[in-house]
Amino acid sequence: MAPLFENFSTVTDFLENDAFRTWVMERRPEDRVHWQHWLTQHPEKRDLYEQAVATFLVLQGKQLSISDQQVKTKTDEILNQLPEASTVVKPLFNWQWGRWAAAAAVVGLTIYWQLDKPFVRPLAASSNQQAQPLKNIGWKLVKNETAQPLVVLLPDNSSVLLSSGSQIRFHKENTQSLREVYLQGEGFFEVSKNPMKPFIVYTTNLTTKVLGTSFQIRAFAKEAVAFVKVKTGKVTVTPVGSPDKPVSLTLNQQLNLATKTDKIVKQESFASETSQSAIVNQQFTFEYTPVSDIFTQLESSYHMPIRYDRHLLGKCTFTGQLNDAPFLEKIRLICLTIESTFEVVDNQVVIHSRGCN
């Protein structure tokens, strides 16, 4: 495998590289590990990478191999056949994705190239469908550069409590067949339930797949151990170095991975070694609990201010179990019970209520 391509900045850089072309054609397991690592380390270049894969498949067609000169010649031929796109597309690293989608239509191909794990999404190349994919390729990158955890609200209503020094990348819109998140660092996830759309978290060393649950992942690049802890529900964790050996975890179980040796240790409980104040250990189960007390706990746990009239809500109580509910779902269920509404304004929750009798 050639060195990972930190300096690649155009699709041509990928297309002219023998190792990249071999990877796309053969999809060898040993190469898959390298590319997942690269995508995790360079999330800002995922769109560029996907464009290169799709473009290569368009250029390759049914050929078993393709030379550097063929790449350049065929690229020029396809681009010269294209009309100027009527849809305004923001250029990505000097390439227009809309033009490459049109290129696939010109040569009459429908591209479907997908790994065992969905690094690259299928592209149905059709001039009538061109506008729709352009809306959905956007990603959002959130970095927590503060000294305390940060709540990140995902478009599917899931939430992530992102630790200091960590970052995540996710789709801006909930229109994909998979809910994908790239994590660098540590985050506590509370995933909204949707059996039709698996939720997948990629890190440098681990891939975690769930349908709806709460769990914590820690995978900092320079740390010797990465781990996954499950608070509620069930997850499947697949080490990057052992893609054929997924491990299932359920309530209170933990998986540790030694990042240098890929050694895996599964624990049946993590409570004894985790601070009881950590959110993965906190219980959000209430019985006739004053709403003001619940809001105080939520503010402390999620580090997001909750604004409300304490006098109006002085007699309001809540009974229920909110352990596996994402942050805003917790707020919504409480408000539903006390006949109130809420909104998120300037990174704080504002409760609107007439009070309780």
What does this structure look like?
With about 350 residues, this protein is an alpha+beta fold. It has 9 helices and 18 strands. It has helices at about 10-15, 20-25, 30-40, 45-60, 70-80, 95-105, 130-135, 290-300, 325-335, and strands at about 140-145, 150-155, 160, 165-170, 180-190, 200, 205-210, 215-220, 225-230, 235-240, 245-250, 255-260, 265, 285-290, 305, 315-320, 340-345, 350. α4 (about 45-60) runs parallel beside α6 (about 95-105). The protein starts with 10 loop residues before the first helix and ends in a 5-residue tail after the last strand. The relative contact order is 0.08.
Examine the coordinates and then state which fold CATH places here, giving the name of the CATH topology of the largest domain.
Jelly Rolls
The fraction of residues assigned to DSSP E strands is 25-35%
What is the string of SSEs from the N terminus onward?
HHHHHHHEEEEEEEEEEEEEEHEEHEE
Indicate the structural class.
alpha+beta
Q: How many structurally independent domains?
A: 3
The CATH architecture name of the largest domain reads Sandwich
The backbone outline, from C-alpha atoms, is elongated
CATH class bucket of the largest domain: Mainly Beta
Radius of gyration: 23 Å
Largest sheet: 13 strands, mixed
Please tally the β strands and state the result: 18
Distance between the termini: 69 Å
Mean pLDDT across the residues is 76
How helical, in percent, are the residues? 25-40%
Number of helices: 9
Low-confidence stretches: 62-66, 78-136
